[in-house]
Design goal:
Helix content: 55-70%
CATH architecture of the largest domain: 2-Layer Sandwich
Number of strands: 8
Number of helices: 9
CATH topology of the largest domain: Tetrahydropterin Synthase, Chain A
Oligomer: single chain
Length: 281
């Protein structure tokens, strides 16, 4: 009989000991209530509670967590509807506040993000929403950090992932972008033509200066003019030959050269006039 009682007592003691031991994993914390009232917080490692009196009501991680906020509708200041989503990085700082101050912390953060995000989108023009994403993220982080402090959590980062306008708005944006690209191309082409024209004019001026220097020598004047005339003659015939519907008429360069030579070799009438004006002796 004594052996049976001893066995029963040993079983009770062992069961009590096993029931009182609670192991909390690293990076987690747990809350203990005694008879329905908050009693204490358990940290990582081996912990003891009072069986039947104490109960672990909640255990959660204190590491940084990721909360994905699904796309929701928002409207810009100029009445353009958008679908926006975000990712929130957050962590629990005070497990007691997080459990007792708010019923569902993740749902609360999601709704707070959506409310703040819609408010920020409503302050912007549609064309500024894409370029102001960094400013939007900072504004969201500042407001969420202040709002979640009473809940014992810390929002470490907010990233607006996608801003999706309706299809008709996208089509309009693509049309405007294509028109802008054509405008830039036209401006670039015009600037290129202007630059080429300036360079051609500069080349012409340089050529004229060079010709003027060479033509000042009467000995080489006829040869230079004959060369230039022959060059123009060949280029003109080449351009005519490139046209499918044109008819090429060749002329004998000899006649052209003789005409130019006659003009070159013609005596200077000004000298004759000046000689005739001299008195005859």
């Amino acid at each position: 009989m004594g052996t049976q009682i001893f066995a029963i007592l040993a079983f009770i003691i062992i069961g009590y000991t096993v029931g009182s031991v609670k192991i909390i994993n690293q990076g987690n914390e747990a809350l203990v209530e005694r008879l329905g009232k908050y009693q204490r917080k358990l940290g990582p490692g081996l912990n003891f509670v009072v069986p039947f009196l104490d109960s672990i009501v909640w255990e959660d991680t204190t590491r940084e967590q990721i909360l994905d906020v699904k796309p929701r509708a928002a409207i810009t200041r100029d009445k353009v509807p958008l679908a926006v989503d975000a990712v929130v990085y957050w962590k629990i700082l005070d497990l007691e506040k997080t459990h007792y101050a708010i019923a569902d912390i993740e749902s609360a953060i999601k709704e707070l993000v959506l409310t703040t995000l819609r408010s920020e989108i409503g302050k912007m023009e549609f064309e500024n929403t894409f370029s102001s994403r960094d400013e939007m993220n900072k504004a969201l982080l500042d407001q969420l950090d202040d709002a979640t402090e009473p809940w014992g959590v810390k929002v470490t980062r907010v990233e607006v992932q996608e801003i999706a306008p309706p299809k008709e708005v996208l089509d309009s944006m693509n049309t405007l972008q294509a028109a802008e690209n054509r405008k830039r191309a036209s401006i670039s082409e015009a600037e290129g033509e202007k630059e080429a024209a300036v360079k051609r004019a500069q080349g012409t001026v340089a050529s004229m200066k060079l010709l003027a220097e060479e033509l000042s020598d009467a000995k080489s004047r006829q040869q230079i003019l004959q060369f230039l005339l022959a060059q123009q003659y060949v280029e003109a015939n080449q351009k005519l030959g490139e046209s499918k519907n044109s008819k090429v008429v060749f002329m004998d360069p000899k006649f052209l050269n003789e005409g130019v030579a006659e003009l070159i070799n013609r005596p200077d009438h000004s000298e004759e006039i000046s000689d005739s004006s001299k008195p005859q002796i």
